Amino acid sequence: MIGISLISFFIMHLAPGDPTALFIDPNVDPQELIRVRANWGLDQPIYIQYFKWLGNALRLDFGRSYLTGQPVILEIAERLPNTLLLMISSYILTLLICIPVGVYSAVKKGGWFDNLFTVLSFIGMAIPTFWVGLMLMLLFAVQLSWLPATGNLVLPLITMTIGSLAGLTRYQRAAMLEVLNQDFIRTARAKGLPERIVIFKHALRNALIPIVTILGLSLPDLFGGAFIIETIFAWPGMGRLGVQAIFSRNYPLIMGIVMFSALLIVLGNLFADIGYALVDPRIRYEKK
Questions:
Q1: Residue 23 and residue 57: Cα distance in Å, rounded?
Q2: Is 249 helix (H, G, I), strand (E, B) or coil?
Q3: 20 to 30 Å CA-CA from 253: which of 10, 102, 149, 179?
Q4: Domain 72-279 in CATH: superfamily?
Q5: What confidence tens digit (pLDDT) does each residue in 221-235 have?
Q6: What does the domain layout of the chain look like in residue ranges?
Q7: Do the Cβ atoms of 91 and 122 come closer than 8 Å?
Q8: Would you state the pLDDT for residue 5?
Q9: Within 10 A of 272 (CB to CB), how many other CB atoms are there?
Q10: Cα dihedral across residues 15, 17, 20, 24: positive or negative
Q11: CB within 8 A of 196, min separation 6: which ones?
């Protein structure tokens, strides 16, 4: 987390320009600009600014927004539930679709269902997510008038699900095919176990391990997609707030969002590690 904060802070300050130029009337007295820069700490060397920010951040004080004057942590707390609602809903919907589709495609390898979803998966991976969002908005909001163009959960949820569904379906299919070709599956079939027991009790549980890994590693992509999707659909989440902060050079708010996003990604990967042991009892984490 400290490494992320260090890199993000210095890269952010490499951008040309000055935040005061976006918030202060250019015709104001130059002495007033000097006073504002001093109040914001922008008159100090960058390494001094960083260490002061880090000391405050360790006490959960991420400063105040240049635009609203509110504490950054409060602005993030207002938007974070909406982002979590969108991401968790997308995760659940993706799993409910990709696992059965991937399993059935592997079991019926080479059939019409497998071929159809192979084509759809490659199309889904090739099409940019923002384009999918715009087409869904054009269809359901403009042409059919079924949903409002902005401010609703349905369209951004479908867009995020489509963006992650294509790749995860292929991973689930590949993992299931690998398990189905292993010796213990042939042994289970040779013992006369029903195919349903072989597939769902013996094969699926082992085939879920790669999916748990991919889900943990896909969190950065979901957060990156949330910045674009929330902006397109005007969803009041942390991603849209981050885009607004970037365009306005709102340094405290940018750093706050970066750190909270990084924290959620780290926690997501931690939960993925814990999920290994839940999916496969053979995996145990012990002190050496």
A1: 24
A2: coil
A3: 149
A4: MetI-like (1.10.3720.10)
A5: 777 777 888 888 888
A6: 2-57, 72-279
A7: no
A8: 92
A9: 18
A10: negative
A11: none
